[in-house]
Amino acid sequence: MTVTLITGANKGIGYETARQLLELGHRVWIGARDVERGEKAAAELGARSVQLDVTDDASVGSALAAIDTAEGRLDVLVHNAGVLETGLDGPAALRSFDTNAVGIVRVTEAALPLLRRSADPTVVTVSSSMGSFWAVTNPERPESGVPLALYAASEAAATMLTVQYSRAHPDITFNALEPGTTATDMTAAMGIGRPVEESARVVVRLATLGSAGPTGTLRDEAGELPW
Fold first, then answer.
1. Cα-Cα-Cα-Cα dihedral sign, residues 101, 39, 124, 147
2. What confidence tier does 194 reach under pLDDT thresholds 50, 70, 90?
């Protein structure tokens, strides 16, 4: 059985990705900052839960230690936790990068020993085309008209980290993705986005490709994106 950890999975795309992977036979661990919300989501889905705050080293370490004790390995890691800051100041910048970029480093580093015990380890980063220079400088793309400096910059960092990890660990499949504009808590104030079911399918597709698929790329549902 494929063992999967999804960060920030008690709601939104992460929750729906968990549901779809469970249907495919994965044993899914829902990582959530709030213990009660994580346990509630896991109970609803038939998954397992673990307290995991990607901005806290001790929390990340404890979460991966718990999965190690229970499973002995990790086959799929989905970096889904993220924030969207609309302000532009120092504290907002720190929150953006700590969650969207540094959190990827914390969780990946803690997960690497478990991933190396997998026969086909896969890491998927839910990033954004807002972090693509190509997209935000292309007047034909909607990203070019969206002024979200911290979100765009931190997602560019998330994608670059994913690419660099793929170079450092060629035995593990690493990819970043643009899931599509999705109706979640993050976009509620904007009133935009498609159902989470559609975007989660993009995540699931990359999470199940394994070593047979690409590595070190940024992708959406249509294929590889320039960035």
1. negative
2. low
**Residue 50, phi then psi, degrees to nearest 5:** -150, 140
Does domain 3-224 fall under CATH 1.10.3720.10? My reply is no
- Residue 52 is encoded by which pair of tokens? 């995991």
Summarize pLDDT for 69-88 with one digit per residue, the tens: 999 999 999 999 999 999 99
Tokens representing residue 18 in the block: 């968990």
Distances from the Cα of 104 to the Cαs of 124, 167, 208, in angstroms?
10, 16, 20
Cα gap 119→121, rounded to integer Å = 6
Radius of gyration of the chain (CA): 16
Residue 8, φ and ψ in degrees, nearest 5: 60, 45
Instruction: Name the residue among 15, 9, 65 with its Cα closest to residue 197.
Output: 15
| In the chain, where the domains are located | 3-224
Please tell me what DSSP assigns to residue 185. Answer: G
- pTM for the whole thing? 0.93
- d(CA 35, CA 21) in angstroms, rounded, equals 21
Q: Which two three-digit tokens encode residue 34?
A: 């709030």
Say if residues 64 and 111 touch (Cβ distance below 8 Å): yes
Question: Taking CA 215 as the corner, what is the angle to CA 214 and CA 221, rounded to the nearest 5 degrees?
Answer: 55
Residues 82, 203: Cα–Cα separation, whole Å:
15
pLDDT digits (tens, 9 = 90+) for 86-96: 999 999 999 99
